[in-house]
Amino acid sequence: MKWGKLPDSGLFRTAEQGEMLRPFLILAFSLIAIVAILYNTKDSPDNLPANAPATVFVPQSVTPAEQKAAVAGIAALKCPEAYANDVERAKAFYEYFDYFFTVYPNKHGMYDWDAGRMDFLISHHCTTTLVAYGYDGTSPIDSAIRQKLINNAMQSDQATSTP
């Protein structure tokens, strides 16, 4: 197969070097694309942790009764630091996740979820958890501090979700 000539961009010493490397560059970019596609499917239902409830994903349709029950479920949850162990804390985390997307079925992004989680932590006075996200523990939480906490939560989520 004859490849078209690469423009002489100065990237290679000679045009022949560029022509020789072209198939390898195409292969490298193709592999990067395949890895990116595979990475984006890592959160599929087949890859959930063993202790994740089956209802973690966004419901397709939610009735008003289900939303009302989810609001009550969120209100009944405690601060993460109030649970006795990691198993209880993880169970509550998954319950909150499920309740949040039942109450807000049209919200799908990480920002929406982190904002909702910060609002829960603020309204329940979960100071210990908020401190872990950069809150000083004493200042009144205004919109600027709330936004900082949401941004810190998103950065934390991204850092813990990378392989």
Give me a quick take on this structure.
The protein is mostly helical and 163 residues long. The protein has helices at residues 15-40, 64-76, 86-103, 110-123, 127-132, 143-161.
List the helices and strands and how they pair.
Elements: H1 15-40, H2 64-76, H3 86-103, H4 110-123, H5 127-132, H6 143-161
Descriptive overview:
The protein is an all-alpha fold. It folds into 2 domains: 1-40, no CATH class; 53-161, no CATH class. The chain is 59% helix and 0% strand. The chain is built from 6 helices and no strands. α2 packs antiparallel against α3 (86-103). The longest helix is centred in the N-terminal third of the chain and has 26 residues, at 15-40. It is elongated. It starts with 14 loop residues before the first helix and ends with a helix. Residues 41-48 and 52-59 have low confidence and may be disordered.
